[in-house]
Amino acid sequence: MPNLDLIRKDDVSSFRKIAIGTWADAYDPSVYGTMEVNMDEAMRYLADFRARTGRKLTVSHMMAKVAAMALKEVPDANAVLRWNRIYLRKRIGIFFQ
Prior knowledge:
Low-confidence stretches: none
Number of domains: 1
Radius of gyration: 18 Å
């Protein structure tokens, strides 16, 4: 994978090995989900930031930062499965569409 900077994860549990072996080939590597979050404090922070700096910081900016922080804290969530092996990404990339 020349376009990805990866580290092979060798310390894989027996359970995870069995789980990987039972999966069919994934054709869409995306993960989808929904979650309700109380954003009152976040919205106050964004309004205060705009008032102090004159710059527009958005909820999307905040969510990208939160996602990056979560992936840094839980690197196993930032992985690629190739040929039944897990590879951890060395970098964190967030994309919004």
